[in-house]
Design brief:
mainly alpha
């Protein structure tokens, strides 16, 4: 469709262009939200795999990088998700009347809170790693971190279930 004529004075042309622009932005933020969510799961899975292996200097750096990707991905998921809720999708009145959305948001916060302990531990490795030394990790700490990562992954799985329920309007109280 030729939109150039719309700008030249045809009625409603400007509104149609703005609507298409808004749809394109909504699609872009939806895409960004999903890509970041997949990156988040990939990074967390990498952490789980790497934390099982022997903790060498090289492996420790890999865990730090995976945790950095995990944190950045979580930030993008959060920002893109909030933009979708407040600006691009069905609007706040829809989302805040959706029980699965409220559960999903709560689970996201719980998973984020759970990730603090492993991240703090991984960041404590930075100094020994810069000196070329292997960080110390007791078997107990390793087990706690692995357990937390398992719970984070379970929380993410529950978030995906909530997203599917939301998409079908299940639990909508509006």
């Amino acid at each position: 469709r030729n939109t150039a004529g719309s700008r030249a004075g045809k009625p409603g042309g400007g509104a149609m262009i703005e609507e298409r622009r808004a749809e394109a932005m909504a699609a872009f933020f939806s895409f960004l939200h999903f890509v970041a969510a997949f990156a988040l799961v990939a990074a967390l899975t990498a952490e789980l795999i790497l934390i099982r292996e022997e903790l060498s200097v090289r492996n420790s750096f890999r865990i730090l990088v995976a945790d950095l990707v995990y944190g950045m991905s979580a930030g993008v998921v959060l920002v893109a998700g909030l933009l979708r809720v407040f600006y691009f999708e069905k609007g706040t009145s829809y989302y805040f009347a959706s029980i699965p959305f409220l559960v999903k948001a709560s689970l996201f916060l719980l998973v984020a809170a759970a990730s603090i302990y492993p991240t703090v531990e991984f960041l404590s490795w930075y100094k020994p790693l810069r000196q070329g030394r292997q960080p110390l990790l007791t078997d107990r700490k390793r087990q706690v971190i692995r357990s937390i990562i398992h719970w984070e992954l379970a929380g993410i799985l529950a978030i995906v279930l909530c997203a599917a329920l939301m998409a079908k309007g299940v639990g909508y109280r509006g």
